[in-house]
Design goal:
The chain is of the alpha+beta class. It folds into 2 domains: about 90 residues, Phosphorylase Kinase, domain 1 (2-Layer Sandwich); about 220 residues, Transferase(Phosphotransferase), domain 1. Helices cover about 35% and strands about 15% of the residues. It has 12 helices and 9 strands. The strands form 3 sheets. A 5-stranded antiparallel beta sheet has the order 1-2-3-5-4, with helices on one face. α5 packs antiparallel against α7 and α7 packs antiparallel against α10. The longest helix is centred in the middle third of the chain and has 20 residues. The radius of gyration is 20 Å and the shape is globular. Keywords: ATP-binding, Kinase, Nucleotide-binding, Nucleus, Serine/threonine-protein kinase, Transferase. Its main location: nucleus.
C-alpha cells in the first residue's frame, strides 16, 4: 500500500476513477490547422497547430490505433486533473471520420529541449524545474493517479518564462491498493527497480524514481544517468551504482524472485558514493544537499523513497520556497491552483 494517498479513489468513488463507460462527445477537427510536426512515438503523432477560432497555438496529439478503453482512460485522467499545477491542459477532443483518427487538442507550451537543459542549467534553474515537477506530481498523486512515464521528453519547459507542464498521460492509471499493474510501462532509462523485476503491486513512488533519475542527469550533466541496452542491462547499471546488498534485501522484503540467465546480475557490487560522479565541471551544482536528495529518491525499496510532498520539503529547495514566499504569485499555476 502506498505511504500516501492510498485511499483517494476509494473515497472519491467509481464516478471519479471508472473510465470504461465514459461517453465522449467528439468534435470535428476543421478549426485546427497543422503547422508542423513536433514528434511521435509508439502511441501517437504530435503536431503544432493553430486554432482558427482564436488564432492561438495548440498541440494536436493524433492517437494511433489502440484499445478504446485506453483512449477513454487518458481523457478521463486529463479531465480529472484539469487546472492542476503544471498539468498540460486538454482543450478539445476531435474525430476525423475520413481517416478514422482520434486526436486530443492540448495546450501549447514552448519547450527548450532536454539536450540544452541538462547541459547548461544553473543550480537555481535545476531547483525550479524539479520543484515545479514535484508540485505537479504531488497534485497528481493526491488525485489517486500514477503518471508511469515521467521523463524529460514528457516535460515541456519554457526556460525564459519558467513555465513547466507535465504531458503525455497515455500510460497513466488510477491507483488502487493491492492491484497488480503491468510492469511494461515507462521508458527504459527511467524505469524503477520494481518495474525491472516485474513487481506488479507498485504505486506512486515509481514516479519519484524518475525524478531521481532526472535530478542525477541534471547535476552530473548526463543525458541519461542510467541507460541500459535492454531491461536486464538497465537493472545491471543500477546495481553497479546502488550496490547488490540492498537489492537482495529488497527482493527478500517483497518476496520477489529474479528470473534471469544473466550471470552479471547475480554478482556482488559495492554501493558507489554519489561523490564519485562529481567532476570539475559539475562540482558547483552537485552540492551535498543535491546528493542527499538524490540518495533519498533513488532507493530500491519504493517505500523508502521520498514522496513528492516530502521531496518539496527537502532543504535542497529552501531557496525556491523562500522565493515563493516573497513572491506569492509563484505559488499559482496559470489556472490558479495553489500548492503548498
Amino acid at each position: 500500500m502506498a505511504r500516501v494517498y492510498a485511499d483517494v479513489n476509494a473515497r472519491l468513488g467509481p464516478a471519479w476513477y471508472e473510465y470504461e463507460s465514459l461517453r465522449i462527445e467528439w468534435n470535428v477537427p476543421d478549426r485546427y490547422e497543422i503547422t508542423r510536426r513536433l514528434g511521435g512515438g509508439k502511441y501517437s503523432e504530435v503536431f503544432e497547430a493553430i486554432d482558427s477560432s482564436n488564432e492561438d497555438a495548440c498541440v494536436i496529439k493524433v492517437l494511433k490505433p489502440v484499445a478504446k478503453k485506453k483512449i477513454k482512460r487518458e481523457i478521463k485522467i486529463l479531465r480529472n486533473l484539469s487546472g492542476g499545477p503544471n498539468i498540460i491542459g486538454l482543450l478539445d477532443v476531435v474525430h476525423d471520420s475520413p481517416s478514422r483518427s482520434y486526436s486530443l487538442i492540448m495546450e501549447y507550451v514552448q519547450d527548450d529541449g532536454w539536450k540544452e537543459l541538462y547541459r547548461t542549467s544553473t543550480e537555481q534553474e535545476i531547483k525550479h524545474y524539479l520543484f515545479q515537477l514535484l508540485r505537479a506530481l504531488d497534485f497528481v498523486h493526491s488525485r489517486g493517479i500514477m503518471h508511469r512515464d515521467v521523463k524529460p521528453n514528457n516535460i515541456m519547459y519554457d526556460r525564459s518564462n519558467r513555465k513547466l507542464r507535465l504531458i503525455d498521460w497515455g500510460l497513466a492509471d488510477f491507483y488502487h491498493p493491492g492491484t497488480g499493474y503491468p510492469p511494461h510501462v515507462g521508458s527504459r532509462p527511467y524505469k524503477s527497480p520494481e518495474l525491472l523485476v516485474e513487481y506488479r503491486q507498485y504505486d506512486y513512488s515509481l514516479d519519484l524514481w524518475c525524478v531521481g533519475c532526472i535530478l542525477a542527469s541534471m547535476i552530473f550533466r548526463r543525458e541519461h544517468f542510467f541507460r541500459g541496452r535492454d531491461n536486464e542491462d538497465q537493472l545491471l547499471k543500477i546495481l553497479k551504482v546502488l550496490g547488490s546488498d540492498q537489492f537482495e534485501q529488497y527482493l527478500t522484503t517483497y518476496g520477489i524472485y529474479l528470473r534471469t540467465e544473466n550471470t552479471d546480475l547475480l554478482r556482488s557490487y559495492a554501493k558507489q558514493p554519489w561523490a564519485r560522479f562529481i567532476t570539475p565541471e559539475n562540482r558547483p551544482i552537485a552540492t551535498s544537499e543535491a546528493l542527499d536528495l538524490l540518495d533519498k529518491l533513488l532507493r530500491y525499496d519504493h517505500k523508502e523513497r521520498l514522496t513528492a510532498a516530502e521531496a518539496q520539503a527537502h532543504t535542497y529547495f529552501n531557496t525556491v520556497r523562500l522565493q515563493t514566499q516573497s513572491n506569492p504569485a509563484e505559488c499559482f499555476s496559470d489556472s490558479g491552483f495553489y500548492s503548498t
